[in-house]
Amino acid sequence: MPRQLTVQWNFDELEDEILFTRAAIKADEDAADLLPMTDKWLGKIVPIRAADLETREHIAEVDGGRVVANGRFDIACVAFADALFAAVGKDRGSLRWLAFFVRSVTRFIRMALVDQVARVRGWLSSSKDPVLELHRAELDKRVTAADLAVVSTRGLAVGRGENWQRRAELAEDLTRERDGLHDALSGVARDKKLPRHWADLFFARERRTRPEPAGGGGGTTPT
Predict the structure, then answer these.
(1) What is the pTM of this model?
(2) Residue 185 phi, psi dihedral angles, 5° rounding
(3) What is the chain's pLDDT, residue by residue, as a tens digit (223 residues)?
(4) Separation CA 189–CA 151 (nearest Å)
(5) I need a surface site. Which of 10, 65, 74, 151 has the fewest CB within 10 A?
(6) Degrees (nearest 5) of the Cα angle 16, 183, 173?
(7) CB 48 within 8 A of CB 170
(8) Cα 209 to the chain's mean position, in Å?
(9) Long-range contacts made by residues 29-35, C-beta under 8 angstroms, separation at least 24?
(10) Which run of H or E residues covers position 110?
């Protein structure tokens, strides 16, 4: 019996599995008439691969945007802290300083981004500190970008789930059709008095590591 294909198989592996089966069928005169059963298999992968790439591109954009937004947000917070620190005479015990930083600046910028966003929004909505006023425009710009990055990151779960479902359905569909081909090949074997294992010849039996091309790369493929 052909192996079950699963969502863990990458697209190259699925394609190689199909190519192997089609080549094997072409090579055997008793199986060649069944080749049309495989004609649409490669085509099934094309739209799912395209959707997968689109999803991964979106995830990369969100991840990259969050990293940059977080970094620029931290820079803005540190710039404000440096200016405030000078304004309070470098006194971390002053009430003016503690109104903004009850912990070290380093710990502040390492807190969860959503918490950091909430804290800075609180400053901007409630404080009229003259140093804050000088940094208000930059902090407002950076906190808005960081907040948007948080929201966008939360939204990735739906896209990831839909992409995973498409890939799972593809693997199930191809497995079902491969099983149907195996049944048809078994029928041919019975009619032509061929050994029972003949039908198994047309399906790769293991996945092996693909040799790395010059310059790097690599991957896995069934054989």
Answers:
(1) 0.77
(2) -65, -40
(3) 899 999 999 999 999 999 999 999 999 999 999 999 999 999 999 999 999 999 999 999 999 999 999 999 999 999 999 999 999 999 999 999 999 999 999 999 999 999 999 999 999 999 999 999 999 999 999 999 999 999 999 999 999 999 999 999 999 999 999 999 999 999 999 999 999 899 999 999 875 445 444 444 444 433 3
(4) 58
(5) 151
(6) 50
(7) yes
(8) 22
(9) 30/188, 30/192, 30/194, 31/185, 31/188, 31/202, 34/181, 34/184, 34/185, 34/188
(10) helix 105-110
CB 117 within 8 A of CB 145: no
Tokens at residue 67, please? 């990293």
Amino acid at 94: S
The amino acid that residue 197 corresponds to is H
Give the type of residue at 112.
Answer: A
Angle, CA 17 vertex, CA 8 and CA 6 arms, to 5°:
20
DSSP state of 203: S
User: Residue 67: helix, strand or coil by DSSP?
Assistant: helix
